[in-house]
Amino acid sequence: MARISQRPKLSLWKYIFLVSLGFLVLFLVRLNYQLMVHLNRDAAVGSAAAAGSNAADMRRNEEAKVDPKALQKLSMLRKEVSTMKEKVSTMKGMLNDIKSNSNSAANTANLDLSHPNDHLSGHILPTGELERITCSPSTSKAQSDRMNKRFVEWWSHSACPDQAWMEGIHTIFDVANAISNKQVALDSSDGSKPFLVLDIGCNKGYTSADFLDALSPGTNMNPNSLVHAIRSIAKEDNTKYDRDGGVCNDSDKPLNEDRESVRGVEVHCFEPSPATYQMLTRAHAKLMPREDGGGGTAKWHIHNVGLHEVNGQMAWHNACASAVGDELCTIVPEGTEDAITVPVVTVDKFLEDTYQSTSASTLPLVHMLKIDAEGLDPAVLTGSTQLLTQNRAVMVMFEFNPGLSEKENPHGMWGKNGNPHKDLLEVTSWLDTLGYDCYLDTRVPKGKEVGKVPDAPALYRITGDCLVEEPRVRGWANVVCASRKFGSVAWGLRRLATMVE
């Protein structure tokens, strides 16, 4: 995920779009230049042929000048120029929107980021909540058709998403804190309530590293430093971990440009695999040896437990005992040969024990509830019912993989063989009743992909009948949700999900 400088009290989105706008303009100039060169070259060839050839030669040259391939190339160039002009115009409009709303960002009572002409994004209500909207049947069908076409062309469209919503996440969470505290204005001096991230299914720790880098870059815990620590540990053990840089090449992600800021952040990393847990503990010792829990510090807590919808002990595949990052590390039926026992806990129970949240009113604000539970994501969500019902999770992200239940060693709840079976739309509908908007997170077209589906958005909206059928993914996909109670946060995601009307 891209990173931007997160200096306090600066218009972060403004700089994002200014830089992006600059790149788009440069690209547009380059395309126009190529078009002019191509046309001039064809004209020169035609003139030379006319001067030195007879009438028959001239006719052949005329035919050459209208070669279908050349015309097709020119047509594609013109189309790209037209597309880039439209994108430049759109970005200018979005930049103007941001400028016009920047003054109200400091006052959550007046924080209305909606565009007056964007009837598909809705408005932030006087309560600070984002209004719930629904898609028309025609919009839903167009959205589903566009998404399914995209997945046919690019199976991993949602497997390793760009997570465009991560831009400026520090500011987004600051606004969420202000809304939670019912403050009229943002109070940046309130360091008593750190950002709280629950990284469930931590694996090699790259999600933890992403959020620590985004929210407190001065701690030097980031994807780049983490991969070096992991490889150092592997070298000490004379081994090599599979995909040590992350399945999505997470270690290559750009770092936060602000390398000095340190903010109170707590990231809880839950990893049921004893082998992976030991590796993470050693990485923690290398990267954050001075972590002492003092005020204003970033903390990375690592727990050797699984998350589920019940509390107790469960049997896990024996791959959990020895292999770091093995996807077979999941819950298996009781009595399975060579299975190991690992404790499991619900999110609600963990928060109750850790933060003494004996009632809904004392629940801490969880800024990100991230779940990657090898197909058991619906169970973990069920175990978070109190947190979600009270809208004390600002954002939720989880993985959807219907193919897990169809493998040689089937597991998980998604897909036709899920046990118990769960559909994505069933889960997102439940979250909708609790006040959450959900989206399918994606990778936007880049390089050779540009032009295949020009209107492919950063997010596909699910909530509000905007998808009428299960996504036809051929692998795993990622879902991100935001509580409508935190209107400005939910609006930020909704505006990334451009719709087909």
TrEMBL record:
Keyword Membrane attributed: yes
Methyltransferase FkbM domain ranges (all copies): 266-437
One Gene Ontology term of the molecular function aspect: O-methyltransferase activity
InterPro entries linked to this entry: FkbM_mtfrase, SAM-dependent_MTase, SAM-dependent_MTases_sf
Transmembrane segments: 12-33
Keyword Transcription regulation set for record: no
Record keywords: Membrane, Transmembrane, Transmembrane helix
Protein name: Methyltransferase FkbM domain-containing protein
Originating species: Thalassiosira pseudonana (Marine diatom)
